Amino acid sequence: MDGVAMKYLHIFNPKYFGNNVLGNRRFSAKGNNELSIFKFFNVCLTKLGRITLEQWMRSPLQDVEKINERLSATEFLLKSANGSLLKSIRSTLRNIENIPRIFCRMQQSSALPRDWKNMMQSLTSLQQLIGICAVHANELYPVRQLMQEAFEIESLSVIQMWMARIIDFEATQKQHRFSVSQGLDSVLDEWIQTYRCLPDLLSQLAEEELKKLRENISTCALIYFPLVRNSNH
């Protein structure tokens, strides 16, 4: 669907585009979407859900079979008898963060302490969501496709187990930096203990150095610059 069609069908808010040429503008679901079809249908609870809905509206399905699958899943969830199921799904979705974005931060070594906590929470909720929907795989085509791809739900538990074993979430939150649990590696534990003792060690060294200085110097400070090198070179 081209930009002109999207504008006059009010898929997104036409005011977002102003008088600019539509062909050179990107539609966005982030803008003010008053009086738009997107706003009417957007009841998504997650950012990924909103992005997916926007993509669906940009590129509508043309395959009749896939259209019917989507309609059947929607009809199934909207049945009054399945109200509790829909409520459980939405409640679980609220706890799922933008996992691809967190992965990207981890790959760039720029993940924040809350990202690790959010990842753990998201994996737990994702596992719960799959469990809730698995019994209705015949009616919910995304779950059915997931099962057909032989997705191993147990892998989520394995990832959570390793994260819980490696990451000290309490220390990570308190210290505002990634913290590894003690007991995983003796050398790493020794480094952590040395790091914790650095303030006292530097204070002691500062006092000793101060004694060597002239009497008119009353204070001094030591700055520690860690030298990281590869032991193989």
Characterization of the model:
Residues 29-221 form the DNA mismatch repair protein MutS core domain. This protein has 233 residues and is mainly α. 58% of the residues lie in helices and 0% in strands. The protein is elongated, with a radius of gyration of 27 Å. The relative contact order is 0.06. Residues 17-29 have low confidence and may be disordered.
Protein topology:
Layout: H1 3-8, H2 37-41, H3 47-58, H4 64-78, H5 83-93, H6 99-107, H7 113-134, H8 141-148, H9 154-166, H10 169-175, H11 186-212
Domain DNA mismatch repair protein MutS core: 29-221
InterPro entries: DNA_mismatch_repair_MutS_core, DNA_mismatch_repair_MutS_sf, MutS
GO biological process, one term: chiasma assembly
